[in-house]
Structures are given as C-alpha cells and as structure tokens.
UniProtKB/TrEMBL annotation:
Transmembrane segments: 9-30, 66-85, 97-124, 136-158, 179-202, 237-258
Lipid bilayer topology: Multi-pass membrane protein
GO-annotated biological processes: transmembrane transport
Organism expressing this protein natively: Geopseudomonas guangdongensis
Domain ABC transmembrane type-1: 60-255
Protein name: Putrescine transport system permease protein
Pfam families (UniProt xref): BPD_transp_1 (PF00528)
C-alpha cells in the first residue's frame, strides 16, 4: 500500500482549506431553518425566495453589470498598455509609465479608493462632473484597478510571441491593422480571455473601492452582503453565493473546454501543414 508523503498531505489539506468552506456554504443554502447554524432539513425555499428579494437581486444585477463593462474596458486598456510596454522598447518616460501601470497591483485598495474619492470630489467641484457618485464611478475605479492585471498577463504573452510571423505577413503586403486583427489578436486570445475573466471576478468581488466611490442607489453585491452579515448571515446570502459559484464554475469549464479544442485544432493544422510541406518537398 502506497503511503502518503508529506507533500501530498499538505496538498490535500490546502485544497480542503480552500474548497471545504465553499462546499459547506452550498450545503447550508439548502437548509430549511432560518438559523444558519441549525440544520432544519433540506429545502429550496431560499432559492425560490430570491425572486421576492428585490434589494438583493438588484445588488446582484448592478454588480454583474459593472463587472461586465469593467472586463471589456480593462481588457482594452490593459492590452494597449501591454503593447506599449513590449513593442516600444525606448521612449521618454517609459519607466514612469510602467510604474504607473503596475502601481495598482501593489498599492493598498484603501489608498486607491481614497485617492479616487478625492479625485471625483475635486472634479465635481471644478467641472461639475461627476454630479453624483454611482455605478459610473464604480466602473471607472474598477477599470483602473483591473487594467493593471490585464497589462501584466498580456505583456507576458506578447514577450513570448514570434515576431517573424507578423513580419512575414507585412512583407507579403498585409497592413499593420490587418496583421494586428488577423494574426496578433488570435495568438494572444487566451491571455485576453484570462485577463477579461480575472477583471470580471475582481470587479464582482470588490468591496473596498466600491465603498469609497459609490453613492445612494449604487449598492453592489459585496456591499449588500457586508452590511447584511453584520446583522447575521441570512440564508438568502448562501443561496446567492451558491448560484454565483455555480455560474463561475460552468463559465470556467466552458472557457477551458473551448480553449483546449482550439489549441488541439491549431496543433492538428500545424502537423497537417508540416506533412504537406514534407510530402511536397
């Protein structure tokens, strides 16, 4: 009988520490008792009751809306910043620009949130915009924060690309924008998808930045849960968290599945091209 090594035991303990609370949360979302710590049997009443909880469902929809737009904007800005850092080796202020791009990664969110709050207040006094803080200011704050993660992910991918492929396309007459859309973007598509998914998750999970830059009527799901937990965990919160876990798990699985299929098709196409080249030669 094979004995478990210390490494395997620590791996299992680490995975259990991470995922066991999630499993418990899902189980207690089916608890019939209103008291979270008392098991009252199996029931789906908290899932059906979510439709009647307008405040909680409104917070969910606002968080999903902000996270969706954040993923789009952060991916676009982060990709542009990554191209500047990797494709323009020297320009005045490059070190400063690189530091500004990666600063949100190491700066405490409290400092970032306070700085953005002061910025929005000063802009409102000087130019009258934003007139009030809400979903727009939350979106701007989340985009600023998540763009740094996208820039780091896309930069790592761009540094691994073979530039001879793009150069060959331009030698054959392709314009730079066509090379970018038809060659560069497909090659960095996995990193773009990873950056968008990370931005979506970070925006959906953020509490600190949203607490600083939000206003009346712009309560996100983390803010709603945080305010409700101080009064005690409600079963509806377990149900919402379980649905989010299910959605994220399904989306991650589908992204992995289609990415793997695309990679397999690419490898088969390369092998077919090599075989045709060898037979032709």
């Amino acid at each position: 009988m094979k004995r478990w090594s210390f490494t395997n035991l620590m791996l299992v303990a680490g995975l259990a520490f991470i995922y066991l609370p999630m499993v418990i949360l899902v189980i207690y979302s089916f608890n019939a008792s209103r008291l979270v710590t008392v098991w009252g049997g199996w029931s789906v009443q908290w899932y059906t009751g979510l439709l009647d909880n307008a405040q909680l469902m409104g917070a969910v929809m606002r968080s999903l809306e902000v996270a969706f737009y954040t993923a789009i904007a952060a991916t676009a800005l982060g990709t542009l910043a990554a191209f500047v850092l990797t494709r323009i080796p020297r320009f005045r202020g490059r070190t400063l620009f690189g530091g500004l791009v990666t600063a949100p990664l190491v700066m405490p969110e409290v400092i970032t949130g306070l700085s953005l709050l002061l910025l929005f207040v000063a802009m409102a006094q000087l130019i009258g915009w934003p007139a009030q803080r809400g979903l727009l200011t939350i979106w701007i704050a989340h985009t600023t924060f998540c763009s740094a993660y996208v820039a780091v992910i896309v930069s790592a991918r761009l540094r691994e690309l073979d530039l001879s492929i793009e150069e060959a396309a331009m030698d054959l007459g392709a314009r730079p924008w066509k090379v970018f859309l038809l060659i560069t973007i497909p090659m960095i598509a996995p990193s773009l998808a990873a950056g968008a998914m990370m931005s979506f998750a970070l925006s959906l999970d953020d509490l600190v930045l949203a607490s600083f830059v939000s206003g009346p009527g712009a309560t996100t799901l983390p803010m709603e849960i945080f305010s409700a937990v101080r009064m005690g965990v409600k079963p509806e919160i377990n149900a919402v968290a379980s649905l989010i876990l299910l959605s994220v798990s399904l989306f991650t699985f589908l992204a992995w599945y289609f990415t793997r299929r695309a990679e397999e098709r690419r490898k088969r196409a390369m092998q077919q091209a090599m075989l045709e080249t060898a037979s032709g030669g």
